[in-house]
Design goal:
Largest sheet of chain A: 6 strands, mixed
Structural class of chain A: mainly beta
Number of strands of chain B: 12
Strand content of chain B: over 45%
Distance between the termini of chain B: 38 Å
Number of strands of chain A: 10
Strand content of chain A: 35-45%
Largest interface: A-B, 26 and 26 residues
Radius of gyration of chain B: 14 Å
Radius of gyration of chain A: 14 Å
Oligomer: heterodimer
Shape of chain A: globular
Number of helices of chain B: 0
Structural class of chain B: mainly beta
Helix content of chain A: under 10%
Distance between the termini of chain A: 37 Å
Shape of chain B: globular
């Protein structure tokens, strides 16, 4: 079946502009995660959605970042008034959401954001 | 304190040789899961292998196996017969407790396979 898809694959924007990044999870997966990865760094957790529960936004670095998930499927990560330090690869992952040890996150190809 | 430690920032290995990537972890929760992911230069994070804390056997997936030493809290990834396409970043991650969705990530090891 289809994996996690993300769009756009690359985004170049000017400082101060708003950007929207899209994630389409694996069909049937109830859990969705957003991460940020700066150049040469590990993954930084941003936000987690599980079904209809309130999302865990504890990883969002500032109030310029927000995310929504419509209909329990597609998610959009929005960054307002982008700053140069927002430049990174934004990775989306989904999982079945089962409370078992084997619940595995599967990742999309990422969106490379460059803020000039 | 680091929960996941990958002590090898970079490794060079000759093609066809086996390679071991180190991962040590720290948790007091008896229930946990350990994951290895591969990230090639294209950027996608690819799931490789999983080991649960109660699993009696070491996990294997094709050329990948996990050398799980619970008492030493290590979960090293072994790649047999390395190939040029194995060149990538490799990340170890842990989930503490079955109901905890968050993964704790290591800093990664950059593996380069030499022809």
């Amino acid at each position: 079946g289809a994996g996690v898809s993300q769009s756009p694959s690359n985004k170049v924007t000017e400082k101060g502009k708003d950007v929207e990044l899209r994630c389409d999870p694996i069909s049937g997966h109830t859990a969705l995660y957003w991460y940020r990865q700066s150049l040469g760094q590990g993954l930084e957790f941003l936000i987690y959605f599980q079904g209809n529960s309130a999302p865990d936004k504890s990883g969002l670095p500032s109030d310029r970042f927000s995310a929504e998930r419509t209909g329990g499927s597609v998610s959009t990560l929005t960054i307002q008034r982008t700053q140069q330090e927002d430049s990174a690869v934004y990775l989306c992952a989904s999982s079945s959401g089962s409370s078992t040890s084997t619940d595995t996150q599967y990742f999309g190809p990422g969106t490379r954001l460059t803020v000039l | 304190a680091q929960k996941i430690t990958q002590t090898q920032p970079g490794m060079f290995v000759q093609e066809k040789e086996a390679v071991t990537l180190d991962c040590t972890y720290d948790t007091s929760d008896p229930s946990y899961g350990l994951f290895w992911y591969k990230q090639p230069s294209s950027g996608e994070m690819i799931f490789l292998i999983y080991q649960g804390s109660y699993d009696q056997q070491n996990a294997t997936e094709g050329r990948y196996s996990l050398n799980f030493q619970k008492a030493r809290k290590s979960a090293n990834l072994v790649i047999s017969a390395s190939q040029l396409g194995d060149s990538a970043m490799y990340f170890c991650a842990m989930r503490e407790g079955w109901s905890n969705y968050q993964l704790i990530w290591g800093a990664g090891t950059k593996l380069i396979i030499k022809p």
